[in-house]
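User: Quick one: structure for sequence A, then sequence B.

Assistant: Sequence A:
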Amino acid sequence: MEKLKTYAFARPVMFSIIMIVVTIVLTSIPLDPLFVSLLGQKSSEYATGIIEQVLVSFAIIWLLKRWGLLMSAGFTRPNWKGLWIYWPMILLILLNGSDFIFGKIVIDTSRPVVIVLFIVTYLSTGLFEEVLCRGAVLSVMLRKWGATRRGCYAVMIMSSVLFGSAHIIHYFLHHSSLLATLTQMTYGIFIGVFFAACVIRNKSIFPAMLAHGVLDIFGSFQEIAVGGGLNKTYITMTVSNSVSSILITLPLFIYGLVILRKVTPSENHGSIT
């Protein structure tokens, strides 16, 4: 364990890449056949996602605790008065759920268990991705380069690029076209910068976990809608839709760069000036 800690602190980028690859593999194990007879196909897939993401998340948290990084990873009480910085994410969440808000999507309330599993699945996705990318990846990088303002910006960009680049797996698994994958990677980087800046600024990862989970929930209501279901089709995207998605999330990237100016560089997520 000490050798791993030494390696992580000395080479945080390579450590982060390895950790992302390993955790993606661990959260992609097809356990759903174990639950199909009991829960059905959709619920079993949700249950698998919950179990794998929660277990891997707690394993990462345990590792951060062993290494004394819990505080720098944002596992502290949020600054409630400072939560206003999340307002752009609230707008994106509402936009993401606009079809549901305006009645174009109607939730199938006849399957309450599926609805609960759906919600918990995406909340666990927010937990997993934030613990991994804004918890572990960001904190080990900040420990090495977070003592300067330039270092803070570099860490925020690098951790977000790794987060966005992880979505390339969808292309290699033939889940989506190259354009759709590159688009997801791009807006993943933009959203990653936003969350990284908010975690550093607020000194807490918990609001980011919740916001990330709610964003995914509002963007996935079709899965539990009347006549809906899990989308397993090959995802394609037009150039115009790609540009629109990037332009919609670009302000989050710019906003993240701006709000980080209020942070005094340090290895412990900075301090607000």
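Sequence B:
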Amino acid sequence: MKSIAGKNLVLIGFMGTGKTEVGKLLASSLNRRLVDTDQLIVDRAGITIAEMFAQHGEPYFRRQEKAVIAELCQQKGLVISTGGGAILDPDNVAQLRAAGLVIWLDASVAELERRLADDQSRPLLAGGTKLAELYQQRENAYRQAAHRRVDTTGKSPLTVVGEIMDIIRQE
């Protein structure tokens, strides 16, 4: 685990893959601070992401996200949970990969549909966009951004954390 001592652990993945919950447990297990990029943006803006999309548009949100990622990548020893679309910006990907170990939390589309069925807080799904289409658009970007992939389908957050800890031990 010495090779990740001064690095961040970065969780990327589609909405509903467990980044926030796994991030909390992972940070606790490693005695590191968790920073959820979406939550940090919300805290600073004083409005929800859905409100930000409605009032200012997605490009405005992406600019806030890019600034937060650049700021966090200057720090060390964090667990960073990113928003699902953070990897769409090549600058974000380059910074996250340089600053830490990037782990892609993945899940099957059927599992994601089940997990997100009652979630009304996802602005990108609000306009009738099909989850499967959005996932398909992003899947290759996740694959290219990640150092390692963990499938969360049918697994508890604790099980996923155990798999990530195994990856860390191998680094």
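The first strand starts at residue 8 and ends at 12. The CA atoms of residues 10 and 102 lie 5 Å apart.

User: Thanks, that's what I needed.
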